[in-house]
């Protein structure tokens, strides 16, 4: 774009002092709207001078442009681009996408290169047809990708005890937790920390709402509930809260809490509340509505939420939300601002669900209520992410007296960090599906070769605990190998792989590899200095012919691995090495990269593996050897 044309374009926007439609600008300058987009992208190449919106273009100073935090890092932008491509099956115009994200076309093209690496394990690819970007691949793989993108927004902090306390500073959350845990134990009930935090948040919100004269008033029949452990515990907790906060839990509030607690203790009492029994306690209308809403989420966002616990909680929440809306009872949500700003994709799902409820029920849903839906969705994805770290287990044990309950309690107590019991049955034939199961723990002999199993005594012995732990160790190792394999293509790059580059010293290698990473857009120009700083503190050479130079800071633009393999050893400080691996780490990607990097280091820490890798003829051969090594049963 010529300077005089650039100045004329900027001056015209300045004189308007308002939004200008692309068509009006095109008519004024006698060019096409595509050329107008090109002008804007070129002017915004170095910094954002012109803002874009559905209303057109407007001249602004950079600090006034309202960009969303979601576009701050390359990884975040990539997730937004992928989400849009999944939803727009006909494709996206790259100029329109640039306008929406306040990015130049060249920046988007760089993000597309990175995105294609991320989606390679999903058998998907972004193709560029003229000005249109299209995501190609099977629908089921697009669904897997969308679920991954949404789950990346959650973290261990999504529903931490600290997050609950920060949101409700007037309540002593730790004290409440201690009292509730004590009452649950009194009634022989156990819940993990994730469920405990859910219960805490529900109760604090309930108490806070009651204190502000916003009790739920619905027809509720407490006689529907048998006098089981969950009912007794829920009533005792309600009594405690009444006395402590000088409030009254009416029958509706107690009914809701008993339902909630019953839905969270399914493993200890398999006759508790489930999706199939929900319509005995909640009007069928709400059960059907919840199914319809989740089906629409599946149709629109390719996300299949089929978790039983989520469905029960979601249905109870939707029922109460509709009641509040029809009776103009607003539920103030102190988490609204955080959820909206920190978890935009999850919040978008909540907006979609809220809009569907409004259309179906002819009600108005306020922003605070939308945030509560976002909270449920975020909690689901957090739980899903936590489950991915655990071994999913089915327990088979006869329901003779309390034998089954005692067995589950002991397993939960001893393996709660590594094992998640998701199915309980009296015999194998009663299990409706084994697809999600990683391990079967059974007190009965089994003839099932497809799924690993452990035969134990009904009352667990020390040998039983050891057998279970040994099987968990094996399954966790296999899971780690699969995860590392998935990210090979994401972090290794043929352009960053070299063979037989011989230099004079470790400093020369660090300078050479840092320069290459800089030229490929991974790091800043002075990255080599921070790598040298780390190297001088302590050599990064292993005693098995491997050096892993890296910076102490996670300030790289992109995460990647630069690697050199050598037929003959070279000096690296006081060591000799034949494999040099320089890594660059981007702070936003560290959560994804850490398990992968640990897996690579595990491979490089064994001389027999290094000896195999240095025999690689080229990049493809090297990758084949890495894949092979990752499938070795090093258990």
From TrEMBL:
CDD domains: PTS_IIB_bgl_like
Upper classification of the organism: Bacteria, Bacillati, Bacillota, Bacilli, Bacillales
Name of this protein: PTS transporter subunit EIIA
PANTHER family: CRYPTIC BETA-GLUCOSIDE BGL OPERON ANTITERMINATOR (PTHR30185), TRANSCRIPTIONAL REGULATOR MANR (PTHR30185:SF12)
SUPFAM superfamilies found in the cross-reference section: Phoshotransferase/anion transport protein (SSF55804), PTS-regulatory domain, PRD (SSF63520), Winged helix' DNA-binding domain (SSF46785)
Annotated organism of origin: Shimazuella alba
One BP term from GO: regulation of DNA-templated transcription
Residue ranges of every copy of the PTS EIIA type-2 domain listed in the record: 490-629
Domain spans labelled PRD: 167-271, 281-387
Swiss-Prot/TrEMBL keywords: Activator, Repeat, Transcription, Transcription regulation
């Amino acid at each position: 774009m010529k300077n005089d044309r650039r100045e004329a374009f900027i001056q015209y926007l300045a004189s308007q002092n308002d939004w200008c439609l692309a068509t009006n600008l095109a008519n004024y300058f006698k060019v096409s709207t595509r050329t107008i987009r090109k002008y804007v992208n070129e002017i915004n190449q170095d910094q954002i001078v012109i803002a874009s919106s559905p209303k057109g273009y407007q001249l602004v100073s950079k600090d006034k442009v309202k960009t969303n935090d979601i576009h701050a890092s390359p990884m975040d932008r990539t997730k937004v681009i992928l989400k849009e491509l999944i939803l727009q099956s006909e494709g996206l115009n790259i100029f329109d996408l640039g306008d929406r994200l306040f990015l130049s076309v060249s920046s988007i093209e760089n993000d597309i290169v990175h995105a294609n690496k991320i989606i390679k394990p999903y058998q998907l690819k972004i193709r560029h047809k003229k000005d249109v970007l299209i995501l190609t691949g099977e629908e089921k793989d697009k669904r897997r990708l969308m679920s991954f993108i949404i789950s990346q927004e959650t973290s261990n902090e999504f529903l931490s005890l600290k997050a609950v306390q920060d949101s409700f500073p007037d309540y002593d959350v730790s004290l409440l937790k201690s009292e509730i845990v004590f009452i649950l134990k009194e009634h022989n009930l156990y819940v993990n920390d994730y469920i405990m935090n859910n219960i805490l948040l529900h109760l604090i919100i309930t108490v806070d709402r009651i204190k502000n004269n916003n009790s739920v008033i619905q027809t509720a029949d407490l006689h529907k509930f048998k006098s089981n452990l969950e009912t007794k515990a829920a009533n005792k907790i309600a009594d405690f809260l009444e006395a402590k906060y000088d409030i009254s839990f009416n029958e509706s509030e107690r009914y809701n809490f008993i339902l909630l607690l019953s839905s969270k203790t399914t493993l200890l009492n398999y006759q508790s509340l489930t999706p199939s029994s929900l319509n005995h306690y909640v009007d069928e209308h709400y059960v059907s509505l919840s199914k319809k809403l989740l089906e629409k989420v599946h149709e629109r966002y390719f996300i299949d939420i089929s978790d039983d616990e989520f469905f029960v909680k979601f249905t109870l929440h939707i029922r109460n939300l509709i009641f509040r809306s029809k009776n103009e009872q607003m539920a103030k949500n102190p988490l609204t601002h955080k959820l909206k700003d920190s978890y935009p994709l999850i919040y978008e799902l909540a907006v979609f669900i809220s809009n569907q409820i409004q259309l179906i029920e002819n009600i108005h849903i306020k922003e605070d209520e939308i945030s509560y839906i976002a909270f449920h969705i975020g909690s689901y994805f957090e739980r899903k992410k936590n489950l991915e770290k655990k071994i999913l287990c089915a327990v088979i044990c006869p329901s003779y007296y309390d034998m089954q309950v005692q067995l589950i309690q002991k397993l939960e107590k001893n393996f709660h960090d590594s094992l998640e019991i998701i199915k309980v049955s009296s015999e194998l034939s009663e299990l409706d599906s084994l697809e999600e199961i990683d391990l079967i723990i059974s007190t009965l002999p089994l003839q099932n070769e497809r799924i690993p199993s452990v035969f134990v005594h009904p009352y667990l012995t020390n040998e039983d605990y050891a057998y279970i732990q040994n099987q968990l160790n094996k399954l966790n190792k296999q899971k780690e190998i699969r995860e590392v394999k998935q990210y090979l293509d994401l972090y290794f790059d043929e352009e960053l792989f070299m063979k037989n580059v011989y230099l004079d010293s470790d400093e020369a290698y660090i300078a050479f590899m840092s320069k290459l990473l800089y030229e490929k857009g991974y790091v800043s120009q002075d990255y080599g200095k921070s790598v040298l700083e780390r190297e001088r503190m302590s050599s990064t050479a292993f005693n098995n012919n491997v050096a892993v130079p890296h910076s102490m800071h996670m300030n790289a633009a992109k995460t990647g691995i630069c690697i050199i393999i050598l037929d003959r050893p070279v000096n690296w400080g006081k060591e000799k090495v034949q494999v040099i691996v320089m890594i660059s780490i981007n702070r936003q990607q560290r959560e994804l990269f850490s398990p992968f990097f640990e897996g690579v280091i595990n491979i490089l820490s064994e001389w027999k593996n290094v000896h195999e890798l240095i025999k690689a003829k080229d990049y493809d051969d090297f990758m084949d050897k890495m894949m092979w090594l990752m499938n070795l049963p090093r258990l």
